Amino acid sequence: MRQVFDLEADRVPTHWYNVLADLPFEIPAPRSAPAVNGERKTLNPQLPLSMYRPSIGRDRFIEIPEPVRAEYQRWRPTPLYRATRLEKELDTPAHIYFKYEGTSPSGSHKINTALAQAYYYAQSGVKEMITGTGAGQWGTALSMACHPYGMECTVFMVRSSYRQKPYRGTLMRMNGARVIESPSMETEVGRAALRADPDSPGSLGIANAEAIEYANARKEARFSIGSGENHVLLHQTVIGEEALLQMRLAGEFPDVVIGAMGAGSNFAGITFPFYRAAREENAGTRFLAVEPDACPKMTRGRYVMDYTDYSGMTPMVKMYTLGHRFTAYHIHAGGLRYHGAAPIVSAMYDKGLMDATSYSQSRVFECGAAFARAEGLVPAPESAHAVTAAIDEALKAREERTERVILFNLSGHGLLDLSAYETHLAGDTVDVVPTDEQIQASLRPLIESP
Amino acid sequence: MRQVFDLEADRVPTHWYNVLADLPFEIPAPRSAPAVNGERKTLNPQLPLSMYRPSIGRDRFIEIPEPVRAEYQRWRPTPLYRATRLEKELDTPAHIYFKYEGTSPSGSHKINTALAQAYYYAQSGVKEMITGTGAGQWGTALSMACHPYGMECTVFMVRSSYRQKPYRGTLMRMNGARVIESPSMETEVGRAALRADPDSPGSLGIANAEAIEYANARKEARFSIGSGENHVLLHQTVIGEEALLQMRLAGEFPDVVIGAMGAGSNFAGITFPFYRAAREENAGTRFLAVEPDACPKMTRGRYVMDYTDYSGMTPMVKMYTLGHRFTAYHIHAGGLRYHGAAPIVSAMYDKGLMDATSYSQSRVFECGAAFARAEGLVPAPESAHAVTAAIDEALKAREERTERVILFNLSGHGLLDLSAYETHLAGDTVDVVPTDEQIQASLRPLIESP
To answer: Quaternary form (chains A, B) (predicted)?
Structure first.
């Protein structure tokens, strides 16, 4: 049975797909925070217009700049596999396909947007890119993307990850980046956080707030973000566009498309092109976002206006959120720790076009390890959430004795996350789930504010 | 400029290449150790005849069994890249190509032979594979290869690596293997080593000796080895056969083909097919094996009969060796720590058909890091030796103002070796080189014995 569906390098998509063209509704506009004592505290990250405009317009297909596509061709098209061994071990009539983004130089899908952003920023004269990173996948990708354009790269890395995953920092430094443990003494946000708690483990919100402050203080430097924003989702559709061609090669169309849910870019990347195709073909395909129980923004959050960063310096957007000060504890999948869901994904979920579910950390590692054993590829803890949902769909198909075509995005490898798997093998994985009271408390300021 | 030379999945070679068919001389036969007090101590690892025979015969092409080829197709053909950014940074007229084996599930070329061996052993009724591993690349590959055949896998892992690289063990355990720290209490060899030195860091020689003893004591279990033997070299020629097709796509033929030199399998894998093609075309191509200064078997060893394991239980073979009790110290490239060179590679080197050089560890990490920055791929410390020689060849081409086509094998990624790169970034890499006296002392028993 055929297991690999490869495309030739000249089949790398020439266009990204803009899902806004096919949505029968508008996405609520962002809103700047009100001035306090006559002072506007909103710091608006300045995006190159050439990058920003297509991501808010209605053009269905956006041409990928040739230099970006040439970079993609270094490792894209990524493979689409059929997980025949996993099917056999689950004894399921389902057909399980997965798109594998772990073959990229950075080891995950993040580099798809990092390269595009580096290109647009370099074109607009920027000399230095600043960002925050949690688990480190995004910082790794951005540091790699800056190098070919001769841009410097500075990464504020969440302290807990910086210390638990030292090799992510090594990788970024090898790519020429400056990696700063966050909270740091380099920014007012960082200094305040350290004054409040010298032992602060940091958070992605703080790291991003530091990066924004730092970038705003420097000429020719810009803050860049790795998920959530429209343009990031747009860049990631290269994943789904390829998978669409590859599923045609396989001669099947998915009944369900699954992605792990951080802020939404890998999920959008795999699902949006299938959303278009399913509409065109009346296929009735389900789109399933998978979150950790520890950070259930879609399944337990509220669809309200909220800030995208911890300190509330960014414009507010309408999204499913747990509140921008929500903290997820003891979660190995650092990339899924973000408090909100991308505005486009949130709006589609609100209209019933997308579905969501959540799993406990221990179940996720159990399924991730089972997948690794069967297929020989170790999923990143984030991607293991998608694996878990795919396994559950396959088990349902077995119960119901129905064929079901399942596609999921294996968004990255877990070779730098083996300590988390070691914890799983030792039986020490911890499941921490927020209480209703905690979520309500975290959401209250948003719901009560005008 | 084109940077990637991809082949379609149906171009995975159908045959391995047996270089013995094209050698104008015989390889000296192995010799069992003499009986001591009437007792033969030689333990002959039992190879399946179907695997062994083609590797000592004169048939030029050996068909790859279809199930093995199907496994190869899961990730092969691996990409061939032109390192255009590295060329630019070196400001060299040379064209630098590299074959990248790091895209395999195990992260290195080792799985090419692991899958073939698992197939042949399973066919011959074996239920359990036993091996020793140093750095862990081989143990990882074998543990992955056993799973599809339902075979158990037991890996004796050198204690120093077991402790310094705990995640290699995690990866093997995730693949269902039993991983035993060596020296262990499970074998006579291990118990003796621990009696002699309770704090023994272990060695690949001891680990292999333990694995052989352990396998011999169990029914339906066999000891398997990851490099050096003829059949292993044969299986790795799939690398060079693909590279040959890919260099044709690129429209060039290499002036020099480079591989890191452990026992010789990745070096043979990339060079042997080019040796054939260069003969056919009178191309005058050089074949360059690269060793660490810390373990200079080819550049400073002797071509004599020696054991392949530490305890002298295996048959002796004629090879370039530093003596089977030679110990290389403070070397991050654990895969290059072996005391000898494969008999076929040794014989070809002796006849002047192959060339060899060696580098200091600090230079190797400097070049490995420079390559990673330029090309976005972190080389395994072993592979970084090939990178270093390629950079030197490119620098020579710049001095001599000549075009030169360089091909090297990037045999694996270094994502599980980032601690060694961290040591490099901190300026703490140590260079330990054996003295002439040490090498002479280690070789003396071999040269003085009949």
So the answer is: Tetramer of two alpha and two beta chains.
pLDDT (0 to 100) of residue B10: 78
Tell me the pTM: 0.94
Residue B88 tokens read as 């630019």
- Determine the distance in angstroms separating the CA of A219 from the nearest CA of chain B, rounded to an integer: 25
Residues B416/B167, Cβ–Cβ less than 8 Å: yes
Residues A117-168: tens digit of each pLDDT: 999 999 999 999 999 998 899 999 999 999 889 999 999 999 988 988 889 9
**Who has greater pLDDT, A259 or B39?**
A259
| Per-residue model confidence (pLDDT) at position B89 | 95
Tell me which of 3.30.70.100, 3.40.50.1100, 3.20.20.70, 2.130.10.10 is the CATH number of domain B66-107+229-448: 3.40.50.1100
Residue boundaries of the structural domains of chain A: 71-107+229-448
Distance, in angstroms, between B250 CA and closest chain A CA? 14
Contact (CB<8Å) A418/B107: no
Residue-level pLDDT at A433: 95
Q: Do A105 and B8 touch (CB under 8 A)?
A: no
Residues of A in contact with B100 (CB under 8 A): none
Q: Which residues in chain B have their CB less than 8 angstroms from residue A4's CB?
A: 9, 73-74
Q: A433 near A124, Cβ under 8 Å?
A: no
Query: In this prediction, does ipTM exceed 0.95?
Result: no
Of the partner residues A174, A369, A418, the one whose CB lies closest to the CB of residue B373: A174
- A105: which chain B residues are within 8 Å (Cβ-Cβ)? 376-377
Q: B66-107+229-448 and B111-225: same fold?
A: yes
Q: Which of A278-292, A343-357, B154-168, B281-295 has the lowest mean pLDDT?
A: B154-168
From residue B114, alpha-carbon distances to B53, B129, B145, B232, B382 in Å are 18, 10, 6, 9, 19
How confident is the model over A42-51, as pLDDT tens digits?
A: 555 688 999 9
Q: Which amino acid appears at position A43 of this protein? A: L
Q: What backbone phi and psi angles, to 5 degrees, belong to A132?
A: -115, 150
* In chain A, residues 64-93 whose CB comes closer than 8 Å to chain B: 70, 73-75, 79, 81, 85
Domain B111-225 indexed as CATH 3.40.50.1100: yes
Residue A142: its chain B contacts at CB < 8 A?
none
More confident residue, B326 or B59: B59
Which residues in chain A have Cβ-Cβ distances shorter than 8 Å to B415? Answer: 107, 167, 171, 415-416
| CB–CB contacts below 8 A, A to B | 95
pLDDT tops 90 at residue A448: no
Least confident of A357-361, B134-138, B376-380: B134-138
Distance from CA of B377 to the nearest CA of A (A): 6
Task: Return the residue of A nearest to B144 by Cα.
Answer: A376
Which tens digits make up the pLDDT trace of B325-371? Answer: 888 888 888 889 899 999 999 999 999 999 999 999 999 999 999 99
